[in-house]
Design goal:
The complex is a heterodimer of chains A (241) and B (200). Chain A has helices spanning 48-51, 200-204, and strands at residues 42-43, 65-66, 79-88, 98-103, 128-132, 138-144, 149-151, 157-159, 162-167, 176-181, 209-210, 221-224, 227-229. Chain A is mainly beta and 241 residues long. Chain A has a domain at 61-228: Aromatic compound dioxygenase (Protocatechuate 3,4-Dioxygenase, subunit A), CATH 2.60.130. In chain A, a hairpin with an 8-residue loop joins β9 (162-167) and β10 (176-181). Chain A is globular, with a radius of gyration of 19 Å. Chain A starts with 41 loop residues before the first strand and ends in a 12-residue tail after the last strand. Chain B has 200 residues and is mostly beta strands. Chain B has a single domain (20-199), classed as Aromatic compound dioxygenase (Protocatechuate 3,4-Dioxygenase, subunit A, Sandwich). Helices cover 6% and strands 29% of the residues of chain B. Chain B is built from 3 helices and 10 strands; from the N terminus they run αββββββααββββ. In chain B, strands 1, 2, 3, 4, 5, 6, 7, 8 and 9 form a 9-stranded mixed β-sheet that branches. Chain B is globular, with a radius of gyration of 18 Å. The two termini of chain B are 33 Å apart. Classes of the chains: A mainly beta (241), B mainly beta (200). The complex binds fe (ii) ion. Fe (ii) ion (FE2) binds at residues 159, 162, 164 of chain A. Residues 159, 162, 164 of chain A line the site of fe (ii) ion.
Chain lengths: 241, 200
């Protein structure tokens, strides 16, 4: 194996523009107060450590992922389909990247010991799955539309319906964890987590689009959720001195 | 499905808006547990096996029982895995780990001690492990590094040197007396000894 030289560029991936990322210290999100660091972040150069990460061979075609088939039968609730692509800021497909998802069931309950919400668990729904994007960055899964659920952030606090997404991308630098929301959810304007992203247009990109092309007749409504990871600067690193 | 544009020449300014971050929340185990890995070693991987153990502590020094760390590092000769894996996280060593904290806020992992990054000049780096920290209460991941207290190369490491001297210690795992392959390293989210976190 040939040693991989440290790329000379310190800015292979574009930095996030001001306001794109949520701040970690966000008093409206109460549990951030004792957990978010207070010291300024120290700039980290993009070295070989940050520019590499786990990558995988893309499957020949879009993987078939179905969260609705339980051990004893079909999960309860409204069946939906979610499809999309993982791309970078320049529109290039991010192929062979691992995506992991998790969500509450139709009643708004997670299959998790610390979820004490008084709503039923569904023996046919775990709410977790993972898949690898194909050569065009595509993914698609069938699931149950998650319910809203209460939390203790403030009186009468409810999370809007959402699906958690974890995406690796090509490098440590591109690692993303986010949440997908649903169009028209009346809870969105009141959710401190969704609204922690200051720029309206940026947070609204976390809302999936209802999509006829993903909708399957006589079967389930479809939603489209494209995920855009940080892009690279214009100068390929091998051309740098 | 609509097709995105075919790959073309690299644009000067991005054409698509980047997707933002949200917290991992308290229930990540459902989605992430399948690839929890606190032992990265493999009998066929050359190198010295080391253990790193510690705890994640909040502003009150209370343990954080619902954090998850992801680690990424080079092999014993200082090379990162750049080959795609056929299947996610089979048993081959690739330098990736994912470790949740327990009820006491503690974590522990076992891996091959990474080598120094082989390069010359300012790109030479002492052995280190990159860490992402996710938890309920963090809207965006925290990024930090673990260095090893018994590495003379730390003194010349460009990243360590970029950190104010009085804060560098937070990035260095301390060798445990009498247990040669064990290191201790805590994450302090706030307070006097707040860990150095990076912007990447
Ligand atoms: Fe959630």
């Amino acid at each position: 194996m040939t040693p991989v030289a440290t790329p000379p560029s310190q800015f292979v991936y574009r930095m996030f523009q001001e306001g794109v990322l949520p701040p970690n210290f966000c008093p409206a999100y109460v549990s951030s107060v004792k957990r978010a660091p207070r010291q300024p972040l120290v700039p980290l150069p993009q070295t070989i450590s940050e520019l590499t990460g786990p990558t995988f061979t893309p499957p020949e075609s879009v993987q078939s992922v179905d969260l609705t088939k339980g051990a004893h039968g079909a999960a309860l609730g409204e069946r939906i389909l979610v499809g999309g692509r993982v791309l970078d800021e320049d529109g290039r497909a991010v192929a062979g990247t691992l995506v992991e998802i998790w969500q509450a069931n139709a009643a708004g309950r997670y299959l998790h010991a610390s979820d004490q919400h008084n709503a039923p668990l569904d023996p046919n729904f775990t709410g977790g799955a993972s898949f690898v994007t194909d050569a065009k960055g595509r993914f698609r899964f069938e699931t149950i539309r998650p319910g809203a659920y209460p939390w203790r952030n403030h009186p009468n606090a409810w999370r809007p319906a959402h699906i958690h997404f974890s995406v690796f991308g090509p490098a440590f630098a591109t690692r993303l964890i986010t949440q997908m929301y649903f169009p028209g959810d009346p809870l969105l304007p009141f959710d401190p987590i969704f609204n922690s992203i200051r720029i309206q247009a940026v947070r609204e990109r976390l809302i999936a689009a209802f999509d006829w092309d993903t909708t399957v007749p006589e079967y389930g409504l479809g939603y489209r959720f494209d995920i855009v990871l940080r892009g690279r600067h214009e100068t390929p690193m091998e051309n740098k001195p | 499905m609509t097709e995105a544009p075919e790959p073309g020449p690299l644009a000067v300014s991005p054409s698509l808006p980047v997707t933002s971050y949200q917290t991992v929340g308290p229930y990540f185990k459902i989605g992430l547990e399948a690839f929890y890995r606190n032992d990265l070693t493999n009998p066929n991987t050359p190198g010295r096996i080391v253990e790193v153990a510690g705890a994640v502590l909040d502003a009150d020094r209370a343990p954080v029982p619902d954090a998850v760390l992801e680690i990424w590092h080079a092999d014993s000769s200082g090379r990162h895995m750049v080959q795609p894996q056929a299947k996610p996280f089979d048993d081959t060593f690739i330098g990736f780990g994912r470790v949740p904290t327990n009820e006491a806020g503690e974590f522990q992992f076992r891996t091959i001690k990474p080598g120094a990054i082989q390069a010359s000049g300012p790109e030479l780096q002492a052995p280190h492990i990159l860490v992402s920290v996710f938890m309920r209460g963090l809207l965006y991941r925290l990024i930090t590094r673990i260095y090893f207290s018994d590495e003379p190369g730390n003194a010349d490491d460009p990243v360590l040197r970029s950190v104010e001297q009085h804060r560098r210690g937070s990035l260095i795992a301390q060798a445990v007396q009498g247990r040669p392959d064990r290191y201790e390293w805590n994450i302090y989210l706030q307070g006097e000894n707040e860990t150095v976190f990076f912007e990447l």
